[in-house]
Amino acid sequence: MNRLTKQATINRVTFYLHYRDIPDMLEKMADEMIEDISTVGAHFQRPFIAVFKGRVRYQAKTGAK
Length: 65
Fold this sequence. Notes:
Blueprint: H1 2-7, H2 12-18, H3 22-62
């Protein structure tokens, strides 16, 4: 814990105001990363689907693989 709080330049009291322990911190960080990835995925989903549909139409018209 000492190394973590020293590198983060916070004290232990500040850490414990936000987290119960290190596993709790890691779980919350993972949840935030999943949320960020979902947001990015939603942002790019529509353009990707449009490109994919265009490619499928092109293949259907030309017989290309």
